[in-house]
Amino acid sequence: MRTTPGLRWWIETAVVAQLVGRPGNAVAQELRRQIEEVPLDALRAAIAYGVDEAVAVRSAAIKPEISAGAFAEHVVDALWDSLLHDEACQADERWIARPFRLTADLDTLLRQASESREAAARLEELQWSWAKQHSARRVHHIVLGQDEPSAIERVLDTRRDDQGWSQAIEKAGDHGQLDPVVAGILRNLPYAER
Q: E-strand spans in the chain?
């Protein structure tokens, strides 16, 4: 099975969500329709292949704290469970990349972020202030990977430095129920040399 743009978006945003400590998006209905006739073993293989690619382009930025192989295995399992149970992939603190680890006093905001756009915006602001203390290049490689252009940019058919980047994130997020903090991270990614 070829990795479709919808499948690639779902995989890439799930990887980013796990690395920043947020839930991944549930399978969009359009993607569910695209894959409903695909044999399960072929679909699982396509997911595993896509996850391996998504993790590989981020592996240098997440090591040594996170094992790329173990992380990829976790994401494949989480996406598969998400697909079978029609729910979002839940965040797991074991896989949060160092620049996105939050201090204990932000835990309350994390819980509130799923209930309130204002809390999500405040969390995003605090999370970025924390993440910006780390290398902008490392943060960039965690979120988009090292490919030029990134898989997310290819799926959205726009570059992150294009004027329509924020609108492309919003439009794609609307179709795939993208977590508002993950959407904010993608929209506001600090510029760094690739």
A: none
Yes or no: say if 134 and 62 are a contact pair by the CB < 8 Å rule.
Answer: no
pLDDT in tens, 103-136: 434 555 655 666 667 777 777 677 666 666 667 7
How far CA 172 is from CA of 39, 100, 169, in Å, comes to 26, 23, 5
Chain Cα centroid distance, residue 167: 17
The structure tokens 């835990």 sit at 107
Whether this prediction's pTM lies above 0.90 is answered by no
Long-range contacts (CB closer than 8 Å, 24 or more residues apart) made by 98-103: 98/65, 98/134, 99/130, 99/131, 99/133, 99/134, 99/135, 99/138, 99/139, 99/142, 100/19, 100/20, 100/21, 100/127, 100/130, 100/131, 100/142, 101/21, 101/130, 102/21, 102/126, 102/127, 102/130, 103/130
CB 161 within 8 A of CB 140: no
* Domain edges within the chain: 5-187
Residue 91 near residue 12, CB atoms below 8 Å: no
Q: Which two tokens stand for residue 2?
A: 């070829």
How far is it, in rounded angstroms, from Cα 48 to Cα 56?
12
CA distances from 68 to 32, 59, 62 (A): 27, 6, 8
Q: Which two tokens stand for residue 155?
A: 């799926």
Question: Cα–Cα–Cα angle for 11, 13, 16, nearest 5°?
Answer: 110
